[in-house]
Protein backbone atom coordinates (compact mmCIF):
# COMPACT_ATOMS: atom_id res chain seq x y z
CA UNK A 1 0.00 0.00 0.00
CA UNK A 2 1.40 3.36 -1.06
CA UNK A 3 1.40 5.98 1.66
CA UNK A 4 2.64 9.56 1.52
CA UNK A 5 2.39 11.62 4.69
CA UNK A 6 3.20 15.33 4.75
CA UNK A 7 4.27 17.19 7.86
CA UNK A 8 5.42 20.65 8.76
CA UNK A 9 2.59 22.90 7.71
CA UNK A 10 1.39 25.71 9.89
CA UNK A 11 1.01 29.44 10.31
CA UNK A 12 3.95 31.71 9.53
CA UNK A 13 4.37 35.43 9.06
CA UNK A 14 5.23 36.90 5.70
CA UNK A 15 8.97 36.81 5.13
CA UNK A 16 9.34 33.74 7.30
CA UNK A 17 10.42 30.21 6.54
CA UNK A 18 8.93 26.75 6.82
CA UNK A 19 10.11 23.24 6.04
CA UNK A 20 7.69 20.62 4.81
CA UNK A 21 8.55 16.96 4.81
CA UNK A 22 6.90 13.92 3.28
CA UNK A 23 7.47 10.34 4.37
CA UNK A 24 6.80 7.70 1.73
CA UNK A 25 6.28 3.97 1.84
CA UNK A 26 4.86 1.16 -0.24
CA UNK A 27 6.78 1.73 -3.48
CA UNK A 28 10.36 1.77 -4.78
CA UNK A 29 11.15 5.28 -3.59
CA UNK A 30 14.59 5.50 -5.22
CA UNK A 31 13.07 4.88 -8.66
CA UNK A 32 10.48 7.64 -8.42
CA UNK A 33 10.45 11.37 -8.88
CA UNK A 34 8.91 13.24 -5.97
CA UNK A 35 7.00 16.45 -6.36
CA UNK A 36 5.28 19.15 -4.36
CA UNK A 37 2.07 20.79 -5.48
CA UNK A 38 -0.20 23.28 -3.79
CA UNK A 39 -3.82 24.27 -4.00
CA UNK A 40 -5.33 27.46 -2.73
CA UNK A 41 -9.10 27.79 -2.21
CA UNK A 42 -10.90 28.15 -5.51
CA UNK A 43 -7.77 27.57 -7.56
CA UNK A 44 -6.28 24.73 -9.56
CA UNK A 45 -3.66 22.49 -8.01
CA UNK A 46 -0.35 24.12 -8.94
CA UNK A 47 3.08 22.63 -9.54
CA UNK A 48 5.70 23.78 -7.03
CA UNK A 49 8.79 21.59 -7.44
CA UNK A 50 9.98 18.14 -8.46
CA UNK A 51 13.13 16.13 -7.81
CA UNK A 52 13.97 13.11 -9.92
CA UNK A 53 15.86 9.90 -9.22
CA UNK A 54 19.26 11.55 -9.66
CA UNK A 55 18.20 14.60 -7.66
CA UNK A 56 17.81 16.95 -10.58
CA UNK A 57 15.22 19.57 -9.73
CA UNK A 58 12.63 21.72 -11.44
CA UNK A 59 10.66 24.56 -9.89
CA UNK A 60 7.50 26.38 -10.71
CA UNK A 61 7.67 30.11 -11.25
CA UNK A 62 6.25 30.82 -7.81
CA UNK A 63 8.90 28.72 -6.10
CA UNK A 64 11.98 29.64 -8.09
CA UNK A 65 14.63 31.22 -5.91
CA UNK A 66 12.67 30.85 -2.67
CA UNK A 67 11.96 27.12 -2.28
CA UNK A 68 14.35 24.17 -2.28
CA UNK A 69 13.31 20.57 -2.78
CA UNK A 70 15.50 17.71 -1.56
CA UNK A 71 15.23 13.98 -1.00
CA UNK A 72 16.74 11.44 1.36
CA UNK A 73 16.66 7.99 -0.19
CA UNK A 74 17.89 6.38 3.03
CA UNK A 75 14.82 7.69 4.87
CA UNK A 76 12.33 7.67 1.97
CA UNK A 77 11.58 11.31 2.54
CA UNK A 78 11.27 14.43 0.42
CA UNK A 79 11.43 17.92 1.85
CA UNK A 80 10.52 21.40 0.72
CA UNK A 81 12.35 24.29 2.32
CA UNK A 82 10.37 27.47 1.87
CA UNK A 83 11.72 30.92 2.58
CA UNK A 84 10.66 34.52 2.02
CA UNK A 85 7.10 33.32 2.29
CA UNK A 86 4.30 35.52 1.00
CA UNK A 87 0.57 35.56 1.78
CA UNK A 88 -0.04 34.23 -1.74
CA UNK A 89 1.87 31.07 -0.77
CA UNK A 90 -1.06 30.16 1.46
CA UNK A 91 -2.40 26.81 0.26
CA UNK A 92 -2.64 23.14 1.02
CA UNK A 93 0.66 21.57 0.01
CA UNK A 94 0.74 18.04 -1.34
CA UNK A 95 3.61 15.70 -2.00
CA UNK A 96 3.29 13.25 -4.85
CA UNK A 97 5.27 10.52 -6.57
CA UNK A 98 5.67 9.57 -10.21
CA UNK A 99 7.74 6.95 -12.05
CA UNK A 100 8.49 9.59 -14.69
CA UNK A 101 9.86 13.11 -14.45
CA UNK A 102 7.05 15.56 -14.89
CA UNK A 103 5.56 18.84 -13.73
CA UNK A 104 2.09 17.70 -14.74
CA UNK A 105 -0.06 16.61 -11.85
CA UNK A 106 -1.83 14.15 -14.15
CA UNK A 107 1.39 12.12 -14.30
CA UNK A 108 1.56 11.60 -10.54
CA UNK A 109 -0.36 8.48 -9.45
CA UNK A 110 0.46 8.72 -5.74
CA UNK A 111 -0.52 11.60 -3.46
CA UNK A 112 -0.39 12.53 0.18
CA UNK A 113 -3.31 14.01 2.08
CA UNK A 114 -1.85 17.50 2.15
CA UNK A 115 -0.71 19.93 4.81
CA UNK A 116 -1.98 23.47 5.29
CA UNK A 117 0.43 26.39 5.02
CA UNK A 118 -0.91 29.79 5.98
CA UNK A 119 1.18 32.92 5.56
CA UNK A 120 -0.08 35.98 7.40
CA UNK A 121 0.62 39.49 6.21
How is the secondary structure organized here?
Blueprint: E1 3-7, E2 10-13, E3 18-25, E4 33-39, E5 46-51, E6 57-59, E7 67-72, E8 77-82, E9 91-98, E10 110-111, E11 115-120
Parallel strand pairs: 2-11
Antiparallel strand pairs: 1-3, 3-8, 4-5, 4-9, 5-6, 7-8, 9-10, 9-11
Class from helix and strand fractions? mainly beta
Mean pLDDT: 97
What is the subunit arrangement here? single chain
Q: SSE order, as H and E? A: EEEEEEEEEEE
Give me the count of strands. 11
Q: How far apart are the first and last residues' alpha carbons, in Å? A: 40 Å
Portion in strands: over 45%
Radius of gyration based on Cα positions: 13 Å
Number of helices: 0
Q: How would you sum up the major sheet?
A: 7 strands, mixed
Helix content: under 10%
Précis, in short:
It is built from no helices and eleven strands. The chain has strands at about 5, 10-15, 20-25, 35-40, 45-50, 55-60, 65-70, 75-80, 90-100, 110, 115-120. The radius of gyration is 13 Å and the shape is globular.
How would you sum up this structure, described in words?
This protein is mostly beta strands. It is built from no helices and 11 strands. It is globular and about 40 Å long. The model has no long low-confidence stretch (mean pLDDT 97).
Amino acid sequence: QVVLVERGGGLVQAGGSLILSCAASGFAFVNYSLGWFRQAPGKEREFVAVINRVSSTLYGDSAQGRFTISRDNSENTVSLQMSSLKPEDTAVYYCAATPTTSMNKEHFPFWGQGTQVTVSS
